[in-house]
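All the exercises in this workshop are built on plain-text protein records. There is nothing in a record beyond a sequence line and a structure line. A learned vocabulary of local backbone shapes supplies the integers on the structure line. The question running through the whole workshop is how a given chain folds. Here is such a record, shown just as it appears in the course material:

***
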Amino acid sequence: MSFEEYEESRDSGEPINLFLFEYGPSIEHRLGLTDFEQAILFNGVTYQPQPADRGTIKASGTLDKSELELRTDRENPIAELFRIYPPSQTVRLTIYQGHADDPAKQYLVVWTGRVLNVKWEQSECRLSCEPISTSLRRPGLRRRYQFSCPHVLYGPMCQANKAAATKYATLSVPADGSRKVTVAYTLAEDELRTYRGGTVEWTTPAGLSESRTILGVEGDGDQTTFVLSGIVRDLLVGGQVALVKGCAHNMDDCGKLHNNILNYGGMPWIPTKNPISGYSPYY
């Protein structure tokens, strides 16, 4: 019998769901769960049995944002990724469906998307997920008539040299649970501002990349403290961090700080004088 025959049969059909979570670059960053009572090996991933219940999959034929809720045990490793601060990487979810008695062990994709958030309720956690189709509704960036550069720093349009703007330092003060990172690295007074808007990046013991935006920089002798946009986790004293410079998105930083003036995306010669009513109130 084929998958379709089991799916349409009232007597032979016994639906099984396989939940594949991917949250990193390697196979160690995959987690497979199933609502069946036995472990299932599929496509090189072992899906471990765990209490899990998903909501109804809706297919309206449009790109409406239709969230899917997945309920499982509160100790789920995926939920742990969201416990303190959302992970820097996207947590993708693919749901396969098959049948227990199918000798061909055919499992078809019935839903794919990403995990948005996790909520804990008593002994279970609820994962809010959105389908991959909603990404098609995101508007692209609009190019505006403006002085400042609209390009994403180090992005494909900016093309600034990120490696040249990156310094490496060693963590000297415990940072877990804090929004501050103190490193054994000395910055000159005029260098402090160049890191605002940049990032602090590190690799966790599990091999995942984490990054936080730098909101402020404080120098103190042979140490420098960076105030970040979120709580730090999985970073031990003695661990190495990458300090990436920011950019004020003006011609001064683009040319002098990043030597990237040829890729500047702003319009610095917008006339400030309106020929009809005097000076523009906007520039």
Observations:
- The mean pLDDT is 84.
- The chain has three domains: 3-137, 143-164+249-283, 166-245.
- The longest strand covers residues 108-121.
- The radius of gyration is 25 Å.
